[in-house]
Design a protein that fits this description.
four-stranded antiparallel beta sheet, mainly beta, about 130 residues, globular, seven-stranded mixed beta sheet
Length: about 130
């Protein structure tokens, strides 16, 4: 059974940092690209970052470039999202996701940020940035 479980969210002050984790099971993480998405209340889902299975490709939304870093530890079946210099507009529920196909799922793919190619999703972890 495939599972993606996010953790690490919480309340942080502006300028602070959080590290989100996406723990996976039910598939070999080393063959999977993993993407992070977020959705704020009343807003559409936004692709935040993606990392390919080989670590050779990472992508970031313009809104988080230079502040967020995606990484993976295949031995721990976990992908991380380090979030620094957090802003109130980063407040959202953060989800990790993957594509189930053996070959397609290795890469972030074109327009990954739309999320349409992802069919494995976690339940999300909430992040609130507020003073």
């Amino acid at each position: 059974q495939v599972q993606l479980v996010e953790s690490g969210g919480g309340l942080v002050q502006p300028g602070g940092s959080l590290r989100l984790s996406c723990e996976t099971s039910g598939f070999a993480l080393n063959y999977k690209a993993i993407a992070w998405f977020r959705q704020a209340p009343g807003k559409e889902r936004e692709g935040v970052s993606c990392i390919s299975s080989s670590d050779t490709t990472t992508s970031y939304a313009d809104s988080v470039k230079g502040r967020f870093t995606i990484s993976r530890d295949n031995a721990k079946n976990t992908v991380y999202l380090q979030m620094n210099s957090l802003k109130p507009e980063d407040t959202a529920v953060y989800y990790c996701a993957a594509n189930s196909d053996y070959w397609i799922g290795r890469h972030c793919g074109v327009r990954w940020e739309l999320g349409y190619s992802m069919d494995y999703w976690g339940k999300g972890t909430p992040v609130t940035v507020s003073s």
